[in-house]
Design goal:
The protein is of the alpha/beta class. The protein has 5 helices and 4 strands; from the N terminus they run E-H-E-H-E-H-E-H-H. Strand 2, helix 2 and strand 3 form a beta-alpha-beta unit. The N and C termini lie far apart (55 Å).
Length: 159
């Protein structure tokens, strides 16, 4: 018995409201990428208030950083993108720009090469922050989440 083949050949065929070959001219995509504690959530919130922006139903789907699209055949990629749009942008208005807030794309830019081929007018908002300002904020977040038990930043930093 042979191998079942690539995963994209085993994906369930699901109904999608999109045509088999969506008009790429009507689909616009933008991503907010950035380091931790750099304001990406605020940027996503502000931009989602614009009528021509559709924020994904999960701010950070990390969809493209979790998949290696580089060797995926074009027809499988088209199917995957249709599922991405249907799942994360089910209420996408005609002509709106999809906004994906997955900060992980900053660390996996090679994963977005195929996305840029499909949607060549893609936009990227890159959020960075002075590390000296970011570190105490990140420490505070780790304390809040329970990932850090030393409450004093200076003491934690010295460890």
């Amino acid at each position: 018995m042979g191998s079942p083949g690539p995963i994209w050949n085993r994906l369930p065929m699901e109904w999608s409201r999109l045509p088999t070959r969506p008009d790429r001219g009507n689909i616009r995509w933008c991503s907010i990428v950035g380091a931790p504690r750099c304001g990406t959530t605020s940027i996503a919130h502000y931009l989602s208030g614009h009528p021509d922006i559709c924020l994904s139903n999960v701010k950070e789907p990390h969809f493209f950083s979790r998949r290696d699209l580089r060797s995926m055949p074009s027809d499988a990629l088209e199917h995957l993108l249709q599922n991405y749009i249907a799942h994360f942008f089910p209420e996408l208005p005609e002509g709106a720009t999809m906004l994906d807030g997955s900060v992980s794309y900053l660390y996996a830019p090679e994963q977005l090469a195929r996305v840029a081929e499909i949607w060549p007018d893609s936009k990227f908002i890159i959020a960075v922050r002075n590390p000296l300002d970011m570190a105490p904020s990140l420490h505070q977040r780790h304390v809040f989440n329970g990932d850090e038990n030393i409450l004093d930043f200076e003491r934690a930093w010295k460890l």
